[in-house]
């Protein structure tokens, strides 16, 4: 290839240099080194200035500060909460609030003004630091990719002056942290490509470790960090295949490569992710808004829990709430609404929050021929405990119906039976009956508390299954949700279980009321298990993410489609649009976004041309030139694709800020394609880079108000209204 020939020519020229000329080389190298160092520092300072500039001009809660600022305050107050994102980013926000001396009392209500005692400026500056540090990271990345210094400076300036990056960095959000760790992950991967020739050295191992730590951090801020992880995974597969085809390498060395990558790129990121949740649980030890997303054991161990000590033996006639042990740990619930089809009987759902419609009374099964006395508490004057193997009937206290199942298909999952609320105390049949199967009994955390009867049902500590007397299927929570007619509550079915350890069929009594019994205050509930809590919380996060779907009956003017982002079809107002306040508009720089989008199309065409030429043997691609193509063309494009395509395919609601990581890689792709196409034209390349830097700077200055704050009436900014979808001046 041309590049290889140029490299050979440069090598020959170096060998033929005179002694006087060779003395100049170190000076040139030192000059380039100090030039790049000064340039990097200059860009970084500029990045900090632009992101810190006027950061407190809008002294109200802006956009998602209402969420993430509030989540940070929960850590200050140690109150448990639930969110769709992993905890690292929000714990860093909590750290900024703690450093700012915040007491956690302000609730971050959207649009509300920050009180005088809340140092929101420092909190925003802490967040902006992550955005500003993307500048030296992209500089390092471009240098490591062996881009020439004009292109390195151009790419760095584009990231520094990107309006959307600046705007998002100014507020208490996760986006700047996500972008920073995404950038460091890619930078570490590029460094590993550069160090391919010295693998298994101490330096290579260090960068492999840093890659794993970056992956762990980016995935611990948002799950979308998995997108850049996929690119690292692809690079790793290619690298290992190359080792596999290297016949000079021993199998021992080859397996060592596998082990090191498994440890650093899989185990270490997972440990980082796990560690974040461990700290998360340790900090949030009080009852809070997120209790409903967890199981009974987790809740009962929180300070101030709503689950109170109750009588330790569940009797017939007791009123109880029953919580699932499945991946969606909701309480068994029923309400007045009917199924729209199927049996058209009362809906039975899973609902996480405390509600009177969660209350059931345990009665003798209809097939037992036994009935409680008139007081609904005793049988022939005696209290009777609920035992393993008993046939019971669950009677809904408010609706006056029975928990019932029949051979009607379930409404969301396939292959299961519907569970409904049917009949009354007088009306019913054998399909109202369920058999108790006790699966596990947990001992009290109080070692002085006596051992309880393992054959009897106890609140909190007894895990049991309910097998339908007639059908033989088990009451289960599928982890799926009903559509709008079921209020998006959890689906409850009767299913044939794959085994006894199928936790979707396990239940426990959470609350227990019986005025004929005495509460044992010495009982201390068992501690919850970290692994169980970890798995359940992550599944609850996934369920909440899946629930973020567009409402077809409601127009969301803030939402946008993925296809709109690369062409800047639409922006996003980050706050109220009153002319009396300072306003921010989330929109990518037209210079950066449009040029980078064109570059991505050129990348595809260029890749096709190279592939066709190689196929026709018009060019010879050796190992080094292949990796050069990977570094300049393949990996930046794949990083963009991995961070863009999921939003095209996913059904959840999407917004402009979701494009930020993809835009970062589109900018890098623009620089690398320019470098590749103009490799033989150094003067032209430097001139075009200079012109581009001037254009980038001018466009930043022109559109600066959208990220630095719009003041006064909107008509002053009609000059920014380039496209009809930009509602800046309206």
UniProtKB/TrEMBL annotation:
It is found in: Endoplasmic reticulum membrane. It catalyses: a di-trans,poly-cis-dolichyl beta-D-mannosyl phosphate + L-threonyl-[protein] = 3-O-(alpha-D-mannosyl)-L-threonyl-[protein] + a di-trans,poly-cis-dolichyl phosphate + H(+); a di-trans,poly-cis-dolichyl beta-D-mannosyl phosphate + L-seryl-[protein] = 3-O-(alpha-D-mannosyl)-L-seryl-[protein] + a di-trans,poly-cis-dolichyl phosphate + H(+). One of its GO terms (cellular component) is endoplasmic reticulum membrane. Residues 1-21 are annotated as: Disordered. The chain crosses the membrane at residues 122-140, 172-193, 205-238, 258-277, 593-614, 626-649, 661-679, 686-703. Pfam families: MIR, PMT, PMT_4TMC. Its EC number is 2.4.1.109. PANTHER family: DOLICHYL-PHOSPHATE-MANNOSE--PROTEIN MANNOSYLTRANSFERASE, DOLICHYL-PHOSPHATE-MANNOSE--PROTEIN MANNOSYLTRANSFERASE 6. This is Dolichyl-phosphate-mannose--protein mannosyltransferase. It comes from Candida glabrata (strain ATCC 2001 / BCRC 20586 / JCM 3761 / NBRC 0622 / NRRL Y-65 / CBS 138) (Yeast).
């Amino acid at each position: 290839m041309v590049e290889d020939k140029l490299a050979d020519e440069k090598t020959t020229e170096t060998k033929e240099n005179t002694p006087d000329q060779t003395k100049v080389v170190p000076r040139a190298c030192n000059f380039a080194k100090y030039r790049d160092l000064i340039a990097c520092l200059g860009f970084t300072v500029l990045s900090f200035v632009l992101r810190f500039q006027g950061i407190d001009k809008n002294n109200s809660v802006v956009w998602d500060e209402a969420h993430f600022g509030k989540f940070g305050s929960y850590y200050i107050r140690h109150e448990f909460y639930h969110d769709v994102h992993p905890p690292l980013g929000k714990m860093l926000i909590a750290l900024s609030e703690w450093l700012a001396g915040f007491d956690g009392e302000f609730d971050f209500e959207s649009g509300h003004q920050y009180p005088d005692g809340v140092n929101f400026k420092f909190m925003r500056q802490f967040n902006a630091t992550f955005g500003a540090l993307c500048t030296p990271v992209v500089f390092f990345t471009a240098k490591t990719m062996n881009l020439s210094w004009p292109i390195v400076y151009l790419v760095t300036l584009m990231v520094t002056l990107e309006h959307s990056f600046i705007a998002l960095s100014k507020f208490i959000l996760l986006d700047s942290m996500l972008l920073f760790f995404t950038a460091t992950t890619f930078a570490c991967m590029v460094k590993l490509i550069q160090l391919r020739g010295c693998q298994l050295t101490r330096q290579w191992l260090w960068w492999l470790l840093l890659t794993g730590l970056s992956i762990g951090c980016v995935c611990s801020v948002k799950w979308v960090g998995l997108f850049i992880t996929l690119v690292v995974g692809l690079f790793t597969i290619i690298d290992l295949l190359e080792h596999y085809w290297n016949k000079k390498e021993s199998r021992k060395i080859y397996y060592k490569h596998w082990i090191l990558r498994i440890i650093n790129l899989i185990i270490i990121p997972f440990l980082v992710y796990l560690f974040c949740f461990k700290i998360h649980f340790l900090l949030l030890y009080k009852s809070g808004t997120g209790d409903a997303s967890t199981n009974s054991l987790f809740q009962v161990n929180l300070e101030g829990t709503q689950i109170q000590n109750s009588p330790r033996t569940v009797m017939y006639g007791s009123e109880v709430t029953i919580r699932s042990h499945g991946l969606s740990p909701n309480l068994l619930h029923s309400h007045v609404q009917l199924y729209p089809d199927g049996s058209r009987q009362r809906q039975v759902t899973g609902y996480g929050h405390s509600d009177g419609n969660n209350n059931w009374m345990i009665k003798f099964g209809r097939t037992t021929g036994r009935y409680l006395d008139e007081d609904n508490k005793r049988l022939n004057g005696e209290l009777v405990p609920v035992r393993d193997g008993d046939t019971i009937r669950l009677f809904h206290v408010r609706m006056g119906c029975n928990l019932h199942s029949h051979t009607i298909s379930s409404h969301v999952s396939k292959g299961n039976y519907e569970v409904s609320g049917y009949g009354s105390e007088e009306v019913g049949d054998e399909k109202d009956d369920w058999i108790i199967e006790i699966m596990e009994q947990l001992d009290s955390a109080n070692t002085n508390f006596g051992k309880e009867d393992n054959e009897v049902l106890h609140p909190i500590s007894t895990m049991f299954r309910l097998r339908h007397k007639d059908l033989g299927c088990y009451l289960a929570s599928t982890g799926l949700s009903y559509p709008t007619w079921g209020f998006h509550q959890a689906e409850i079915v009767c299913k044939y279980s794959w085994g006894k350890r199928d936790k979707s069929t396990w239940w426990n009594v959470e609350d227990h009321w019986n005025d004929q019994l005495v509460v044992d205050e010495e009982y201390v509930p068992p501690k919850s298990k970290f692994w169980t809590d970890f798995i359940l919380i992550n599944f609850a996060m996934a369920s909440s993410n899946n629930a973020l779907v567009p409402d077809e009956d409601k127009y969301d003017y803030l939402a946008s489609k993925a296809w709109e982002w690369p062409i800047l079809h639409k922006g996003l107002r980050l706050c109220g649009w009153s002319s009396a306040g300072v306003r921010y508009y989330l929109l990518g720089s037209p210079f950066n976004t449009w040029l980078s989008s064109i570059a991505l199309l050129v990348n595809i065409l260029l890749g096709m041309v190279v592939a066709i030429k190689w196929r026709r043997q018009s060019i010879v691609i050796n190992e080094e030139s292949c990796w050069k193509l990977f570094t300049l063309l393949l990996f930046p494009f794949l990083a963009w694709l991995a961070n863009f395509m999921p939003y095209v395919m996913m059904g959840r609601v999407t917004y402009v800020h979701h494009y930020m990581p993809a835009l970062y890689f589109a900018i890098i792709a623009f620089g690398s394609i320019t470098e590749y196409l103009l490799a033989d034209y150094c003067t032209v390349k430097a001139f075009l880079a200079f012109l581009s830097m001037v254009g980038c700077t001018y466009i930043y200055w022109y559109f600066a108000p959208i990220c630095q704050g719009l003041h006064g009436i909107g008509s002053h900014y009609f000059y920014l209204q380039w496209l009809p979808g930009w509602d800046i001046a309206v």
